[in-house]
């Protein structure tokens, strides 16, 4: 057979020294160039400048607020000693978690998201896939390195506020290590993807990486590459020259990932291409629920065909909604259960970090509880997704919504208990006194669980944003959109404020337990109000509509009046 | 006016050096499962070079799954599929095969003529040959006046025609077509049928998954699938297709 590849080769006359046909590779390069040129031609220069202005403005505001929010309590000598001993292990564990996510993503076809047309036209063309994928792979590594660099620099600022060493030391080190971690995580994901590591194997590798780092923490010694990166990250307080060796390993992994991507699965690539474009569209509409659903499809997170526990038939006159929700729980995939446990642990660690003086961590903890709430409220979200189902039942919508809050509240209490357990574990290893964990922690469980649930419910039940009918100026409309996005997580943050009140009480030599108890009253009241809103939402809207009737339309100007 | 003969030479000569022809498509124990659901049961199938085959079956019978595995877009759960003797998805198979999907996928930032230009070049066609072939295809599908437009401005039918033109602008010896008539107007359907018959008469293997019963008048062989299993394999002229697709 006179294959097309052979034909192309003979026709084009573009051959490398080793006889490789270069015509398709040149065509590929020119295709990318033409697309870039066309995109650039369609960009409105003023629109571009305006977007740059908005981004710079947003970043500036974030830096100002962030700088104010970061605590400036310098670590004591004892605390610095602990950081020197255990810091590399803990930083390594955090890095291992990032690598675990990367390996898991790679085993599911990530991290690249190619345009669907590239999958169909370029990857099905007789062009070596390694060549076709090299440029997107390099872009991915570069982007991940940049994200790591920015995050690392931010963490460097945080560290400089509390640990010995100035900003001039911490920021470059944080940015450098962040960039390496970002690039290496992309390289790991690309390597996993190119080698077509199966999802179960990817999960195994991810668990092994975390376990190895966990062992470093337990032993108080660095044996893993992640721990070596941890040592590099803490260079301003102690330099370990040997830890630079990890950079060579990082380079090898990144190069292997970029050059070994030819084996990527087209099935995964096409699925990701389709889903990622839908996720981007949903994000532009601030449609969080759609993002959650599409992300589950992207990670192939499906309900179990056989439940964990077989429940018997539903007895008459029982609470149908509660039973429906419990049945949903019994079909949760293992990965969702692990995610909720992890979110509980993250929330607990963030509260511990907040207690230790790093106040911004409270926002991270609130975000973890918010995400857990979104998972817990799956049955309510399904009712909102399919409004025909609840509206076809002879029940008051508010009662259905309130009914759906009960089982998820139980789930959120379990998540909060996991967070409490994490704090106790941290106290047990001496991070802070156990008596404080026991006196403050219990008063955080209910407010955190309740407001985690209410924050998520607000997001789930909230209608999509209007189509700009209120004709607000662009800046005001932008602020309104941001407020809309942060409203629900901010509610959750309120649930964690008792820890701040208790911390403040300790500084004023007052009983932190009593302070936490009194500090939990306001969040609990807001939570109960939130439940009431969930139950009587329509009635409340109706009340406000009647109280503020729309103003009558202005009559059209007549020739006489003008 | 474009050269009407420009499309006559896009079928790759399939003669092997040893004079023996590998089957155009050969599947051995080909299986695809999604969790516990089997989309395609173990399927053994041989389609020789130069056949015009109609693939029929009700929705969910496994037609698209089979074609997508042959194109290399889906990975078999078990078994294998070869195109012209090469594993599906390999460089050789990709060079031999053209796949027309029912779902047109196009770049939003390339015009129709740029699509034809670059995709032709990726498949080794260049210069005057590419220009003539592209112009002839646009002429056949009445797309010439939209040559410089972006597909984002096209209707579903125009996108489908563009996608078909892209599948035919390049050389191939095996043409896989999935539900080709969806979204096409009557002239488009006629043009596509004529092009598929042209390709067949030039020696290409054409495999068409369709619900269009009138295609039995054109097809030589019919393969019926039901619930992922082979339900019929024989001449298209004698088969009761309506029974197979219902």
Strand order of the largest sheet of chain B: 6-7-8-3-9-10
- N-to-C terminal Cα separation of chain B, in Å? 44 Å
Radius of gyration of chain A: 27 Å
Beta-sheet strand percentage of chain A? Answer: under 5%
- What is the chain-wise order of helices and strands of chain A? HHHHHHHHHHHHHHHHHHHHHHHHHH
Q: Structural class per helix/strand content of chain B?
A: alpha/beta
Assembly annotation: heterodimer
- SS-based class of chain A: mainly alpha
Overall morphology of chain A: globular
The tally of domains of chain A stands at 2
Count the strands of chain A? 0
| Average predicted local confidence, pLDDT of chain B | 87
Based on the model shown, name its key terms.
heterodimer; A: mainly alpha; 2 domains; globular; disordered N terminus; B: alpha/beta; four-stranded antiparallel sheet; 7 helices
Question: What would you note in describing this structure?
Answer:
The complex is a heterodimer of chains A (about 550) and B (about 250). Chain A has helices at about 5-10, 25-40, 45-70, 75-105, 115-120, 130-160, 165-195, 200-220, 225-235, 245-260, 265-285, 290-300, 320-330, 335-355, 360-375, 380-385, 390, 395-405, 405-430, 435-440, 440-460, 475-495, 495-505, 510-520, 520-535, 535-545. With about 550 residues, chain A is mainly alpha-helical. Chain A has two domains: about 75-285, no CATH class; about 305-460 and about 480-545, no CATH class. In chain B, strands 6-7-8-3-9-10 form a six-stranded mixed sheet, sandwiched between helices. A four-stranded antiparallel sheet of chain B has the order 2-1-4-5. Chain B is globular and about 45 Å long. The interface of A and B includes residues 3, 7, 124 and 127 of A.
